[in-house]
Amino acid sequence: METIQKATIKEAAQIHRLVNSFAARGKMLPRSLSEIYENIRDYYVVHQDSQIIACGALHVLWEDLAEIKSLAVTGEYQKLGWGYKIVNKCLEEARCLNIPRVFCLTYTPEFFSRCGFKVIDKSELPQKIWGECFKCPKFPDCDESALIYAFKE
Question: Given this model, what pLDDT does residue 134 score?
């Protein structure tokens, strides 16, 4: 039975392959292996046997803001709820850390809307989040949608 758990160092290469398989199709930003190692504590994974079938990360940016990124589910496991479960796990962690807002930049805003996120204008996000955007081949003409989840007080 598959469960969501925190990623380990030994899983970095598999996460790298999964994320970059989506990046190669223009579905998300590519991630270097060193970036995944540096941020391994941000990642959650789901295994089927010894293979990672899904991953996602919660990256803390500031005292009041975090980002869900690198959410990927292999094709044969899509539409089974794994993406939703990883998003919920990330939101649960953000709540435990007392981070009131979590955002994402995505090509699938419908999915995140179903998870309770609201579409916002990218200009509403702090400028410091754009540091990663310089790595994107589409910069400065970003065509991703920005969404945010705000916890109720």
Answer: 60
Number of domains in the chain: 1
* pLDDT value at 127 more than 70: no
| Whether residue 137 has pLDDT greater than 80 | no
Q: What is the CATH number of the domain that holds 100?
A: 3.40.630.30
Q: Between β-strands 65-73 and 43-48, what pairing exists: parallel, antiparallel or unpaired?
A: unpaired
